[in-house]
Write a structure and sequence with these properties.
Four copies of one chain form a homotetramer.
Chain A: E1 2-6, H1 12-21, E2 25-29, H2 33-40, E3 45-46, H3 50-54, E4 59-62, H4 67-76, H5 79-82, E5 88-91, H6 97-109, E6 113-116, E7 119-120, H7 123-127, E8 131-136, H8 139-152, E9 153-160, H9 164-194, H10 198-210, H11 213-223, H12 234-250, H13 256-270, H14 281-288
Parallel strand pairs in A: 1-2, 1-4, 2-3, 4-5, 5-6, 8-9
Antiparallel strand pairs in A: 7-8
Helix pairs in contact in A: 6-9, 9-11, 9-12, 9-14, 10-11, 12-13
């Protein structure tokens, strides 16, 4: 199967590598040319433009930073026009629900398919082909893309026939992580004021209640106040929370936790923490409790 | 070791049974006499009053509903006076931090010991001796109680020398569960409005992110809108949230999530849901999204 | 002075009438033709299109429902192109800050002026030429429009040289009203549960503290639960709160009250109250307190 | 009429003076003796204890700092016992609803009357006999106290027959002021980030919308960031918000705004602002927006 691949960032690069390993013929493009060159050694054809990478491909996979980047590639740099009738766009980026629907409409109008397939997992999971793919779209398009998705992840959950609902799921999942960060941040501030160390508290609640590696991971980062380097930048957490609120607004769903998180993300960005890990949300809880920023 | 045991409710009964099994000589008392009688067959001595159960005991274990019940037993029904110098009160109830400190002071004044040892786990975990005990108190008192605590649970976490910090940890742990319930409730409302089933969503986020039996359990209850019979009654969730806020107020810690939860608990109680499982917190999120109460 | 006037709704019609009364030569256009006809008797020239109304005008006044309506008129229906160099657009609609900036840029690019002049006041105040105009823009453009603004209102506050800051002020002002509504709604729910009538409470707090006709007005509507007909529709309150949050997001300002209001507006819309007066925000506070909807 | 008067703080002193001016025979007591001495020149009898001031009085007026101070005087220092059958306690302090009910019960049990008569107004209003008294109690007791209340204030609002509802009204009134402070603080932070001065914004919204001296007053304090000396200390604002939340909790009324305010008050106290004017609540909004504390 001939595959075009656009976006070779921290996530796109390992995904592309896994597709090459699985035997796909990949034509890749990245705005920063060096990144694409790295893949040539693995057998990828390097295209000089997004349009060129898309031309003639049966499936075009995109993994870009945000709505703006994807919109630029698809609409302004000619990918939509370059894709032939019957070709499928497999969009793996974390984008907004409204924009995902706009993509669905544009591809349908052009006689093309569109599968939204955002992923849960960080770059190390991508490298290990351990991503969890959330997919939505028309059944034949999903099936056509399934082998590709299988090559990148450990599981594929198909959540609906409208592509954009996969984006709803992805954004809400990220929201749940942010809720966990906020909850742990507040809980730790309370422990510290009472003289209980965050680590001791975390050991109890994760051992007794959650038994969750995610709680262990974020709890550990916050207990140690280790917010740099960022695993996932705080300003991206703000972006995703904003997109979740937009998705909720469209169908009239109040999300008090997301509203609270958005305000806390904004306060963090306003105070220069946008490039820290989003676990730094917990700094606000500590400061509002009168705790200094240093570890206990 | 001679042990007095007060409070044979859903939690106290299986704990007392495990102590008997472990070979302790137990004198038990319960306000409702029938409950104590059940234990006589297992070898317990049934006392006619709380005071009688406490008299001569090396350790008095209490497992009562709330501050008021425990205060009544200790201060009004003569337990404090009946306990001899050197005796230790092992308090396993979920009580307020201020009241726990008051107990510590009263026992210290009487030359007695006091260990706060609230537990995580439901009645079935108590029956299986699988509770997680959070203990705090003076080291010698902790050590004296350790075999008893070991007989009831799978783990004992000592979190400090001031007994009341164990109550801080217990209340905050419950708060984290309530946060999870609220977060799932809001997330599910959003999925339902977009046509994604809560079960499908839960499978994704727990599989991809949390991997937590607690998320599976509460997520399942909310997805199925199965709020009765209550595993843990909503009005007790309100009580514990209130106590967590009081503990936070005393040391000037804002807890925006707890504040939000308290308001949602109050709305639930005001609308007749106090005796449902506290997972019914999610009903408010559904209603505010314009969803009817029935399953999707 | 030759003036084009676009938008003859509840607010635009009385403003246009006041301009005619003040002696301006008005060419008017409204999507619904009948409305324009009403003004012909007052001396207005009725144009067949927005473009026609704008052609040759020294000032084009717009008073339309929202960003979309204004965008359609200015960009799609040819007003921008029809306006000559040096002509000024006086935009009185309540629109978003980002869109207002886009208008400023478009007019500057065309060698035209743009003054944002949103107003505080309802249709009856407009009819009585008692509006309060919040104006921003370049000083010469403000001065050129001042006589027109004076003909429509009792006061003109110039709040900055960047036109869009007038929209910030207008949106934030509306937010303050919404805060008042929410605060009164919660306060009344509490009084009702304690047996104090909202009217009695309102008399005290407005008499003793606020002395504000706005508190008297909204307090009266909520006390009497008189939410229809709408003076200002709830869904417009949601729209303006959303725009205020967008303006705040752009400059990284958390607005916890606005976030809370947005959620309550969404719950109201999700439950079929979008066309009630925005004072109906108070119904949610009453319901969450377990009060039925009827007056006490 | 023979009147005992307890509590000669910033509010009690001018009230006592007005009662003396109105011709009442006053026996006064204050914990700090010097304060009482000041009143002797005005004709007051200075008692050596609270009990002595209460003995033989037809009405005992109390104006103390909080529940604890009033409880100490009434229950521990013998005022309840010293008051004869038929005597009336006119309690003007801002106290909790639960404690007010406890007072009502104690006085009823002793065959005495109790009128809750908290006031709106600051010391300067007290000096000018311009307080607004919120009264509740049995009609005959109210009537007996009416002349005293008239001597201290410009208006008396009787809000119910249960004394404690007057405290509900007083606490909720203070809550509305706190809401106004918070709303202005957030609004000003937004203006400052967009380059609009708080004073300019305030002039517009108060002129166009609120027309309220309270908005002018607090808006001015926040615009000028003039938080010291305190007109009303922030930690008292926290105390009253806490009492309002307790009153709401008792009747199951969620108060999201009060919850939010309590968290903001706690953050302010945790950061050393407890003795500033409660308008300093606005500092948090400014800081969360990344603004430094200095005026713009």
């Amino acid at each position: 199967m001939k595959v075009g691949f656009l976006g070779l960032g921290n996530m796109g690069m390992p995904i592309a590598r896994n597709l090459l390993r699985a035997g796909y013929s990949l034509t890749v493009y990245n705005r920063t040319p060096g990144r694409a060159g790295e893949l040539a050694a693995d057998g990828a054809t390097v295209a000089g433009s997004a349009e060129e990478a898309a031309r003639g491909a049966e499936v075009v996979v995109t993994m870009l930073a945000d709505d703006q980047a994807l919109s630029s590639v698809v609409f302004d740099q000619g990918v939509l026009d370059a894709m032939g009738p019957g070709a499928i766009h497999l969009g793996m980026s974390t984008i907004g629900v409204g924009f995902s629907r706009r993509l669905a409409e544009a591809h349908a109008h052009a006689g093309q398919g569109y599968v939204a397939g955002p992923v849960f997992g960080r770059p190390d999971a991508a490298a290990a082909a351990r991503l969890w793919v959330v997919a939505a779209g028309a059944a034949p398009h999903i099936e056509a893309c399934r082998p590709l998705m299988e090559a990148t992840g450990r599981a594929i959950s198909v959540v609906g026939a409208d592509p954009w609902v996969a984006n709803v799921v992805k954004l809400t999942g990220n929201l749940l992580i942010a809720c966990t960060i906020e909850a742990l941040g507040e809980a730790f501030a309370l422990q510290r004021k009472w003289g209980v160390t965050p680590r001791a508290f975390l050991e109890v609640v994760n051992g007794a209640l959650f038994n969750s590696p995610l709680y262990a991971n974020y709890g550990g980062l916050i207990a140690d106040e280790k917010y740099e380097p960022a695993g996932f930048r705080l300003r991206l957490g703000l972006k995703d929370t904003r997109l979740a609120l937009e998705a909720a607004d469209e169908v009239s769903v109040p999300l008090p936790l997301a509203s609270l998180l958005r305000d806390h993300f904004l306060a963090a960005v306003a105070n220069g923490r946008g490039d820290m890990d989003w676990a730094a949300l917990a700094l606000l809880a500590a400061e509002n409790a009168g705790l200094d920023k240093g570890p206990m």
